[in-house]
Each structure stands twice: as C-alpha cells, then as structure tokens.
Specification:
With 371 residues, the chain is α+β, with helices and mostly antiparallel strands. It has 9 helices and 13 strands. The chain has helices at residues 15-46, 69-88, 203-206, 208-220, 226-260, 271-275, 286-292, 294-306, 354-370; strands at 2-12, 106-111, 118-120, 123-126, 130-135, 145-153, 159-168, 179-185, 189-192, 263-267, 311-315, 342-345, 350-353. The strands form 3 sheets. The protein has a 7-stranded antiparallel beta sheet with strand order 2-6-7-1-5-4-3. Strands 9-8-10-11 form a 4-stranded mixed beta sheet.
Length: 371
C-alpha cells in the first residue's frame, strides 16, 4: 500500500531568500486572481468556461518568470479544483473567491522533480531559492520519496515548510479488543467511557483579557504607521501561541488514546451548526466550540488510528446516547433537556451522569458496528 505522510519544519531563510519567498507568494496569488477574473469575465460574455494557463500571462507580465513555474502551476490546479467543485455541486461549494494579501498568511506549493527538492543535513533545497536552513527535529520516513512541499509564512513572520512524502507500508487491520467511547463536551473537549475526562484548559479563554487589550491598542493605531505594524505583530504572536497550545494538547491526547485502544467511537455531530448563534441569542456556543478544536481533534485521532490499522467509528448524530440507560437499555426522553446533568432510572435503580452514560452507550454502539 502506498501511503502519504506530511512533515512540518521551521525554516530560517536569509534576507535574500525572504525576498524571493515574498515574490513567489505574490506571483502565486496574482496568477490565481488574474486567471479567476478572466474566467468570470469570459463566462459573463459567452456563458462558457475558459481554460487558461499561467504560461499565457508570462509575455504580458515577464516578472512571473522570476519565480518557480511549478508554484504558478499549483495555483492553477487549486483554481481548477475550486472551479470544478463549484460547477459539480453549487449548493455545497460557493463560487471561487479572490485571494487577499491582507490576511497575513501566505503560501505556495511546488513539486519535486528529479531531486529539485531534497534535504541534506539541516538544509533543504528549493527551486529558484537554493539551500534554506531548517530545524530538522525529526527525520523523514526511511525509503520515502518527497512528492510536494508547501512553503508558508505566518502572520507573526515565521516561515514553515510542509513536506509530503510517499512510501510503501503494509497496514494490516487488527482484531479489535479494546473499545472506547467519547462524548463531546462543550467545555472539556470530551468525556470518555473508560478514561479520565480530557479537561481541556481553554487556552483562548485564559488569554482573552490579553487579547482584548492588545486588539484594542491595535484598533487605535494609525493605519500605515510603524507602531501599528508592531502592535499587529504582538496580536499575531498571541493568536499563534494559543493555536500552538491547542494543537499540542490535541496531538498528545489523540496519541495517548490511539496507542491504547483499537476502536474509538464518537458522535458524528455538526460542529459548524452548533457554533452558529440561534434565534433569540440562545445556545450560542461558538467561542467554546472554536476554542476546544473538536474537529481538529477527531481528524488527528482518525489518522493516528489508521496508521496502526485501528478504527475511528462515527455514530449517527440521531443516536440517543444521552437518553438510553447503559444498564437496562431503557430510554428516558426527559434528558433531551440539556440542563439535566444527572438522573436516576427507577426501572433498574441506576444513577447516571449524563455525559458518562452517553460515552458508555457510544462505546457499545461502536462495538456493535465493528462486529
């Protein structure tokens, strides 16, 4: 089986290399916007699709030749994918939008052709850039081949490289023995059937006061001034620290669970729908849901389990995990009220914690599905 795996490293480019990175970021963004604009205009005039390529613009804009041609080709591939998704399913995918240079985040992708991208020591060679210093905190998989790389710059001014490698691996599915159920928790990430609760530290909430002060100062700075740039950097560093703390916590939790259980069951909930504000201002969980990163956690858990031949099973969102008694299986419709956190079931005399009971029911449903 051919498997893809990505590695992310911090880059330390020189001043000249930073200038070249900035040119490539700008050219990739420009060619994406230019091609998109021409396609939209052509469609308005003729009602047909336009198949344009970056090569058509190099004569009119000769400075496009200064950067890696594959970065422009990948921008075209991204545009084609967005356009095809829009044409195939307009209800789900929106019309492709123009890329802005004011977001603070920039990136481009290139391909490895005949060793044009390779790592030697603590440096990586990139087309049109040369050898760039990087922090190689872990080695690439043995007997792997570099396929593509993505260079990115964060709003705080740091440079990173994501290297996608391809290698052959035999992943054999295992016979599941250990099962775990996870019930989504608004403030604690999850409640587990056979483990301690995650007790997510709420990194965004903890840093909220510092963020408010920093963003208030930023709003008072004059646009285009040097002080505004300094304050914008402070805000970006705060946001980056929160994101790094969240990602580190989720990676460690996902690795801990993936190493100890063969099958993990979770609810197939719509996080996006839960984050929306309901009518009347009730049940607005947007900040809590965005802070704990449930979608990111489930994605990490899924691929960490798959690497070991294990399973992540998503239980249907209409499965009444909170209403069923895990002892006798009877259903209590009163628990539809979210304020009911604990309840007693007179038929079997069991006392239930709402979330713990739901996690156990999810575990048993995952056991039934995997059988």
């Amino acid at each position: 089986m051919i498997v893809n795996k990505a590695y992310r490293y911090r880059l330390y480019p020189t001043i000249e290399q930073k200038i070249m990175f900035a040119k490539t970021f700008g050219c990739a963004r420009f060619i994406y916007n230019k091609m998109l604009g021409d396609r939209l205009d052509y469609y308005k005039e003729t009602g047909k699709r336009l198949n344009n390529t970056p090569a058509q613009y190099k004569k009119e804009f000769p400075w496009l030749k200064e950067v890696d041609s594959l970065a422009l080709a990948n921008a075209q591939i991204n545009l084609n994918k967005a356009y095809n998704n829009f044409w195939s399913n307009r209800k789900h995918f929106g019309k492709p939008s123009f890329k802005s240079k004011k977001t603070g985040h920039a990136s481009y992708s290139t391909n490895n052709q005949h060793g044009s991208v390779r790592i030697e020591g603590n440096k990586v060679k990139l087309p049109k850039i040369g050898w760039v210093k990087l922090c190689l905190h872990r080695l690439l998989m043995e007997n792997s081949t570099i396929k593509t790389v993505t260079i990115s710059k964060t709003p705080s001014g740091k440079y990173y490289i994501s290297i996608l490698v391809e290698y052959e691996n035999q992943i054999l599915p295992i016979i599941p023995k250990n099962f775990l159920g996870l019930d989504f928790a608004m403030h604690g990430l999850y409640v587990a059937s056979d483990e301690d609760n995650a007790d997510y530290p709420n990194f965004l909430r903890e840093a909220e006061n510092r963020l408010v002060k920093a963003q208030r100062k930023l709003s008072k700075r004059q646009k285009g001034s040097r002080n505004r740039d300094k304050q914008r950097l402070r805000v970006a560093v705060l946001h980056e620290k929160i994101a790094n703390q969240r990602r580190d916590f989720l990676h460690k939790k996902a690795r801990y669970l993936a190493d100890r259980y063969d099958v993990i069951g979770i609810e197939d909930i719509s996080v996006k729908a839960m984050a929306k504000r309901k009518k009347g201002g009730k049940f607005s969980f947007g900040k809590s849901i965005s802070d704990n990163g449930w979608s990111m956690f489930t994605s990490m858990l899924e691929y960490k389990l798959a690497w070991q031949g294990k399973q992540l099973i998503k239980i249907d969102k209409w499965y009444p995990s909170s209403q069923l008694c895990h002892v006798c299986g009877c259903q209590n419709s009163n628990t539809k009220d979210l304020s009911v956190r604990e309840w007693d079931w007179p038929k079997c005399g069991s006392h239930h914690n709402r979330d713990k009971n739901a996690a156990i029911n999810i575990r048993e449903e995952a056991r039934r599905i995997s059988a």
